[in-house]
Recover the amino acids of this structure.
């Protein structure tokens, strides 16, 4: 393990103690005309399925990316894109003037779902070569595959509903620490880290292993700051007050997973997708 990773892990406990409050919601920056046009074209493109477009009402892609400060001329890394829901938006929006890295799972990951998503992701890229020809696929797999992009090359790193995984059994003892270090290392000074994940509302009683899929803002902020990031703000764009965070199969009880099948299906459809936090960080140095 690198020296910075050891220092990061050691600093987390102190950082958690130091977070006694969360700053007020930060307003999103206005998109420049070129970026707005690129995002509109990507979000409304025919390459996106009706099912994926239907989730826009829960995931708010344009508003979320605007909050992070996304521009269509940036170098952007998406960490663990999974099946590629956000890649369908990011890759086309960056194709003309930017650069896009997809930091996927290892080629030989520990979990079956990762193999499934990785395979389907590569098929997605290969199935539309004109749209995805410029996507650069890298890997994030602690503890050995940590170069998600050339060091200091990225303007922005984003990851959606992944941080909680790094605390679960099977991902590696230091997965969260090393994940944040990898994202920090990839960014230029002044670069932006944007995170969305399932929100656990009370850091004092959250599951240390995040087995229910939820994680607190406080814990996420602590790990980011321990890696060297500065907290730059939060948004309620992806908050869902109907989610009471108490479900038999955790967040996977809710759509789109609906792991209980037809049992109480109408109830969970009425709740909608999970309550999520949206956090923005900056790598200092500019």
């Amino acid at each position: 393990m690198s020296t910075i990773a050891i220092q990061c892990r050691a600093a987390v406990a102190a950082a958690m103690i130091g977070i006694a409050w969360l700053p007020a919601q930060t307003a999103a920056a206005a998109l420049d005309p070129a970026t707005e046009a690129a995002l509109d074209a990507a979000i409304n493109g025919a390459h996106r399925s009706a099912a994926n477009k239907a989730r826009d009402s829960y995931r708010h892609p344009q508003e979320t990316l605007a909050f992070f400060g996304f521009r269509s001329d940036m170098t952007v890394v998406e960490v663990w894109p999974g099946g590629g829901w956000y890649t369908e938006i990011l890759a086309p929006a960056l194709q003309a003037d930017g650069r896009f890295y997809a930091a996927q799972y290892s080629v030989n990951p520990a979990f079956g779902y990762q193999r499934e998503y990785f395979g389907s992701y590569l098929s997605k890229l290969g199935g539309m070569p004109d749209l995805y020809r410029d996507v650069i696929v890298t890997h994030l797999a602690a503890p050995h595959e940590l170069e998600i992009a050339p060091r200091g090359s990225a303007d922005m790193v984003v990851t959606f509903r992944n941080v909680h995984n790094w605390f679960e059994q099977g991902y590696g003892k230091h997965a969260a620490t090393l994940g944040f270090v990898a994202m920090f290392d990839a960014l230029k000074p002044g670069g932006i880290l944007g995170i969305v994940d399932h929100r656990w509302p009370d850091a004092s009683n959250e599951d240390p292993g995040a087995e229910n899929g939820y994680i607190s803002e406080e814990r996420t902020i602590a790990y980011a700051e321990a890696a060297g990031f500065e907290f730059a703000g939060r948004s309620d764009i992806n908050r869902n007050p109907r989610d009471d965070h108490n479900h038999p199969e955790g967040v996977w009880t809710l759509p789109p997973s609906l792991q209980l099948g037809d049992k109480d299906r109408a109830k969970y459809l009425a709740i909608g997708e999970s309550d999520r936090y949206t956090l923005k960080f900056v790598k200092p140095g500019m």
About this structure: The two ends are 28 Å apart (CA to CA).
